[in-house]
Amino acid sequence: MDSGRHRRIRGRRTLFRLGIGGGALVAAVIAVALTVSMNQVAGVRACAAVLSAAGSGQIATHYVLNGGGGNCSYPAPPADNLYVAMPASEYDAAAPCGSYLEVTGPDGSVRVKVVDQCPECAAGHIDLSATAFARIAPLSAGLIPVSYHTIADPPLPGPLSFIVKTGSSQYWLALVVINTGNALSSVQVETASGGWLSLARANYNAWIAQSGAGSGPFTIRLTDTLGNQATVRGVALAPGAVRGTGTYMYGAGSTPPPGTTPTSAPATTPAAPPSRAPAGSPATRHKHPRASATPAGLRSLTAQVAGKPPATPATGPRTAAATPSC
Question: What percent of the chain has pLDDT over 70?
């Protein structure tokens, strides 16, 4: 390859014989060579900036959930399609599910809901929905430097809802809570004796009573990581459907007045197919599909960030965006 430099023209006679027209040709060649060289330098600097961001700070890529609501077991993505998958170290066995991040990129900021895990992402690398990514950078950028933090008491999209997971019975109970705003720290079910049974959170964001909590309906007390608390009564043991309530996690309606008995709204929205089996089954994760994927799909990440593939079966595919090659 010529490496962008024009070659010397040997012999003065040949050069002089080019005359005025030849001089113009030589000048044009020099201009083209300089342009190519400058473009190559600019390209190298651009790639260096991206790789520097990937190695030194928080970064973001983008993807699309192809069905389901992510590893957090929500029935669907948020209505505004502004969501994020967290790296395994920050997903921390579903601890941040339902919380919101403020993400700032080259072109602005966006608020996103934590709904998923990115098993291959290193710490500081988040996977944004394509809609969210487009708010802070062109999709063609692929990978960008960002900063992000958790929002305290973000505006709530609506009152609390519950999914009683398929497979639940009086002997085994699993609940997923929707519209919490902040991440939850505790889910408890009132017992027949008036005490409170604490449920354990699985890494797919279901709160589980391994020995069940009776046949319902249940009174459920929620506490979030900032200390907000809400109590919902009348949650029926009706597996496989989203049960709405009139209670908000915080703000107006968060704690019903004494003596009132708010009840669950009729189940109108079918929940996603059961993504996890009852107690003792392995946790599952959404993954990126490949051409030779199993029915649930296999996940691959962007070219700049390498990681180990998840070892557990997927509940729904996700499609990673291509990143520019340097």
Answer: 60
Confidence grade of residue 320 (pLDDT, cut at 50, 70, 90) = low
Residue 251 binned pLDDT confidence (cut-offs 50, 70, 90): confident
Torsion angle of the four alpha carbons 236, 208, 154, 257, in this order, in degrees rounded to the nearest 10:
40
* Residue pair 233/259 in contact by the 8 Å Cβ criterion: no
The pLDDT of residue 112 is: 98
**Domains 59-151+287-320 and 161-270 fall in the same CATH topology:** no
Token duo for residue 108:
């602005």
Whether residue 83 is predicted with pLDDT greater than 70 in this model: the reply is yes
Q: What span, in angstroms and rounded, lies between the C-alpha atoms of 259 and 101? A: 37
Q: What is the pLDDT of residue 286?
A: 41
- In this prediction the pTM is 0.67
Entry field: residues in the chain: 326
Q: What is the pLDDT of residue 253?
A: 53
Beta-carbon contacts of 37 under 8 Å, excluding residues fewer than 6 positions away, are 4
Q: Following DSSP, what letter does each residue of 25-43 receive, concatenated?
A: HHHHHHHHHHHHHHHHHHH
CATH code at 59-151+287-320: 2.40.40.10
Q: Which residue has the higher pLDDT, 45 or 114?
A: 114
Q: Which of 219, 149, 153 is nearest to 180 (CA)?
A: 153
| Number of other residues whose CB lies within 10 A of the CB of residue 257 | 6
Residues 305, 25: Cα–Cα separation, whole Å: 46
Chosen CATH of 161-270 out of 2.60.40.760, 1.25.40.10, 3.40.50.970, 3.40.1190.10: 2.60.40.760
- Residue 163's CB is within 10 A of a number of other CB atoms, namely 25
Beta strand segments in the chain, E: 59-65, 83-87, 100-105, 108-118, 125-129, 144-145, 147-150, 161-164, 173-178, 184-190, 196-198, 200-201, 207-209, 218-224, 229-235, 241-244, 269-270, 318-320
Residue 182: name the closest of 213, 220, 214, 226 by CA. Answer: 226
Q: What is the pLDDT of residue 26?
A: 40
